[in-house]
């Protein structure tokens, strides 16, 4: 059985690494980093959609995913309006998975922001050390 929750967390971690340079720049510039992937990261919305939402699920996979990730269920039926029932369920699963990844991403950004405050107070100023620290904080 696929662990969709863990997959979503792994995908969120991959997203942190994808946008690591921008995260570091935001931390260095303002002391915190944004959790708004759609608006504050270059190509973030497209990356999220193409990497996490634009997927096909068979009916049984969709049912399993929707069951495991029920707290992230996408309920905007306009996203799958006009699709055949099986395709609609697959689309709902895809958007639900996207919601789970986005929530995990936001949680990782919260951790980064909290850990950065402590890291900065230790007079760390080497960008490579910050990159390594972010990787450690999000593992």
In words, what does this structure look like?
It contains 7 helices and no strands. By secondary structure, it is mainly alpha-helical. The model has no long low-confidence stretch (mean pLDDT 92). α1 packs across α6. The longest helix is centred in the last third of the chain and has 37 residues. The chain has one domain.
Residue ranges: pLDDT <50 for 5 or more in a row?
none
End-to-end Cα distance, whole Å, is 23 Å
Mean pLDDT: 92
Strand content: under 5%
Provide the domain count. Answer: 1
Protein structure class:
mainly alpha
User: Helix count?
Assistant: 7
Main sheet, how many strands, which sense, barrel? none
Number of strands: 0
Residue share in helix = over 70%
Order of helices and strands: HHHHHHH
Q: Provide the gyration radius in Å.
A: 17 Å
Overall 3D form: elongated
Assembly of the depicted chains: single chain
Q: Mind sketching the topology for me?
A:
Blueprint: H1 4-18, H2 20-30, H3 37-40, H4 44-53, H5 59-68, H6 85-121, H7 127-137
Helix pairs in contact: 1-6, 4-6, 5-6, 6-7
In short:
With 139 residues, the protein is mainly alpha-helical.
Properties at a glance:
about 140 residues; mainly alpha; 7 helices
């Amino acid at each position: 059985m696929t662990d969709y929750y863990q997959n979503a967390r792994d995908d969120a971690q991959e997203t942190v690494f994808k946008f690591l340079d921008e995260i570091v720049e935001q931390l260095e510039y303002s002391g915190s980093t944004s959790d708004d992937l759609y608006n504050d990261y270059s190509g973030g919305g497209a990356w999220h959609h193409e990497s996490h939402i634009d997927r096909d699920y068979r009916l049984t996979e969709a049912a399993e995913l929707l069951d495991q990730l029920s707290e992230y269920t996408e309920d905007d039926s306009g996203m799958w309006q006009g699709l055949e029932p099986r395709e609609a369920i697959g689309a709902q699963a895809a958007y639900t998975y996207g919601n789970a990844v986005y929530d995990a991403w936001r949680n990782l950004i919260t951790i980064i922001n909290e850990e950065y405050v402590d890291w900065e107070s230790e007079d760390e100023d080497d960008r490579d050390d910050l990159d390594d620290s972010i990787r450690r904080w999000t593992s």
